[in-house]
Amino acid sequence: ETFADRLAALQSRLQSEPGNTLILFQLGNLCYHQGAANNPKAVILAEDYFRRLLTIDANDAMARVRYGSVLTMKARDALWPLTQLSYVKAGNREMDKAVNLAPKDEQVRFARAVNNFHMPDIMGREQIVQEDLAWLWQQAQLAETKLNVGQQQTIALYYGQTLQKQNKLNEAIQTWRAGLDLAPKSEDAVSLKELLKQHKSGYRKTSR
Predict the structure, then answer these.
(1) To 5 degrees, how large is the angle CA 34–CA 130–CA 136?
(2) What band does 202 get if pLDDT is binned at 50, 70 and 90?
(3) Do the beta carbons of residue 83 and residue 45 sit within 8 Å?
(4) What is the pLDDT of residues 45-61, one digit of tens each?
(5) Which of 105, 132, 150, 162 is the most buried (most CB within 10 A)?
């Protein structure tokens, strides 16, 4: 089923139930992921669906963090530096509001952390990223964690890199090892293996 097919099916459902926040979220999320794959038109659609949802329920933290991320995608697609900066700042404000609404929601914190991890230091998000990833890594290691294995490995990858930037290489290596051991043969494990190979003193092959 193509993006266009799924979009049309959801849009048809929304026509029958224009105030259905679940359908609005599904539409926004569908377009969000398509927008992340460099589809500017999908970004515009995602912005509209999430904005409409938030008009109905301003306290939907997941919708708000996605909306903020969509605004940073608009920055990616904008031509002028000042416009780009404006969208990024607006997106960050929305993501911060989302985390304030649900500070213990792993998915909300994960969405902000992954988005902000890739921002240049000049945006002043480094401390927020460090705090998000440190908290997320704690959650990832809980037996009842709500994070899937792919998310756990992404957290391990990024958190280890923040530790490395703080000159805490031993802690970084331990984090990368733990992340790798979660699923040594997954696609997400590839980057962890590469980082561990760069620091061979801390790398051990796993037999799993």
Answers:
(1) 65
(2) low
(3) no
(4) 999 999 999 999 999 99
(5) 132
Residue 52 CA, chain-centre distance (Å), reads 21
The DSSP string of 77-144 is H-SSHHHHHHHHHHHHHHHHHHHHH-TT-HHHHHHHHHHHHTS-GGGS-HHHHHHHHHHHHHHHTSTT
* Predicted confidence (pLDDT) per residue in 89-99, tens digit: 999 999 999 99
- Give the separation between CA 79 and CA 75, rounded to whole angstroms: 8
pLDDT in tens, 130-162: 999 999 999 999 999 999 999 999 999 999 999
State the CB neighbour count (10 A cutoff) for residue 81: 9
- CA-based Rg of the chain, rounded to a whole angstrom? 19
Start-to-end C-alpha separation, the chain:
35
Would the CA dihedral through 85, 90, 92, 93 be positive or negative?
Answer: positive
Q: Is the pLDDT of residue 205 over 80?
A: no
Closest CA to 189 of 169, 167, 160, 163: 160
* Section 25-54 average pLDDT: 97
C-alpha span between 169 and 49 (Å, rounded): 43
* % residues pLDDT > 90 (the chain): 93
Q: Which two tokens stand for residue 190?
A: 């590839």
